[in-house]
Every structure is written in C-alpha cells, then in structure tokens.
Amino acid sequence: MKLYQTYTSPFPTRVRLVLYAKGLSPEIIEPPGFHATVESKGDYYSVNPIGRVPALVTDDGRALPESEVICEYLEDAYPDPPTLPPDPWGRAQVRLISRLCDFYLVMAMVPLFTASGQSRKRWDQAAIDKGLKAVETALGYIEAYIGEGGYAVGDKLTWADGALVPQLMLSYEWAPALFGSENPLGKHPKLAAYWAAIAKDPIAARLLKETRDAVAHEQANAKAIAKSGGR
C-alpha cells in the first residue's frame, strides 16, 4: 500500500490518522509539484488524474483519490480498530465535522494561502481581512457541533479529529503569526477546550508535530525560492 501525500496539505492528515490508528504502515510518497516549489507534478497525474493529494494505492495497484473516500475505504477494509462511532448519529457527526472543515474553514483559508505564497508588498489586505473574518465564522460553525468529551465526536479518536487538527493549527498558530491578526482561540470556548485536550492524544500529537514541521519547512523553502528569484 502507498499513500501519495504532503504533510503540509490538511487533507491527507485525516487519512494518516486512520492509518496510524489501525496500525497500518503504507509507503509514504510525497509527489513533486506541490506547495513552495518550481517542480512539475509530472508522472503524478498517472496516479491521480485530478492532480491533488492524497491518493491511496492499494496492494493490488488500484489508486483511490479524495481523503474522505479513502477514509471510508480504510474503515471498510480494515474495520478493527474502528475510527468511526458505532451508531448512525455519531457517524453522521464525524462526517459533519469533516464537511464543515472542508467547505467552510478550508475555503476561508484560500486567500490566506494565496497571500502566503506572495511577497508582503503584493498582499491584498482586503482579501486577507475578509479571509480572516471568514475563518472566524467557520470556527463558529464548528463550535456549534464540536463534542465536549475531549475529541471532535464522542470520547475516542475519529477521522473528524484528523480533519480538524491541522485546520485549527493553521487558524490558531499559522495565520495569526503570519498576518499579525488576533488569535481566535479565546472566542470559542468549546473549541478552546478541545484544542487543549486533543494535544494529549498521542496520535493527534503526532499529526500536530508533522503539520507544524511541514509548515515550517515550506515557509523556509518559499523564502529560499523567493531569494533565488524563483530558480
């Protein structure tokens, strides 16, 4: 089994959570052409014609894109230990948290991601301010549904945590540090309690370290590319 992914993208994180929780150890491959780079994606399109990460290649050579679909596949193919609650309502809550992350929080981050790849003199401050406001709104949506048992849903790790952990790291650490904005951490008490609790889970802590290390690496790489004039 192979997982094509990058550690900077938040989408593969939920897949890695499922893999780690189930004790699966696929070959991790970081394809070229993503994030701060001048490389082409090249042959990766033969793995995933969509050209995005993640993509899972099974032992028999079949490739599956899209993080949520991959999580569903892994849950069906390797049911023990489970990374979904046993009841329909709990499962729906996991999918809801993931959807809120993908459709609201990630989309709110898009202008911030765009600005982060530019020199400060090219920043569209109005777009950045609008993005930061949208991030806070999206966090409010998640606040309304987040669990209060130390995890996103229920009292155990689910792939909703894999969806939420990297996005909260970007919201609480990356965006305020880069854009000099107010940290939204104190504005949503349930999310603040979750953020403090989830870091104590060893798998979540591993995901957080991977994300922080990857973001720091990409920032350094982007600065090096800019300094070299993009060569």
Which helices and strands appear, and what pairs or packs with what?
Blueprint (H helix, E strand, L loop, with lengths): L1 E3 L6 H11 L5 E3 L14 H4 L7 E3 L5 E3 L1 H11 L10 H29 L8 H21 L13 H21 L9 H10 L3 H26 L4
Parallel strand pairs: 1-2
Antiparallel strand pairs: 1-3, 3-4
Helix pairs in contact: 1-3, 1-6, 1-8, 4-5, 4-6, 6-8
Task: Summarize the structure in words.
The protein has helices spanning 11-21, 44-47, 67-77, 88-116, 125-145, 159-179, 189-198, 202-227, and strands at residues 2-4, 27-29, 55-57, 63-65. A four-stranded mixed sheet has the order 2-1-3-4, covered by helices on one side. α4 (88-116) runs antiparallel to α5 (125-145), α4 runs parallel beside α6 (159-179) and α6 (159-179) packs parallel to α8. With 231 residues, it is mainly α. It is globular and about 50 Å long. It is built from eight helices and four strands. Helices cover 58% and strands 5% of the residues.
Find the count of extended strands (DSSP E, 2+ residues).
4
Average of pLDDT: 93
Number of helices: 8
User: Radius of gyration, Cα only, in angstroms?
Assistant: 18 Å
Morphology call: globular
**Helix content estimate:** 55-70%
- Report the sheet-strand fraction: 5-15%
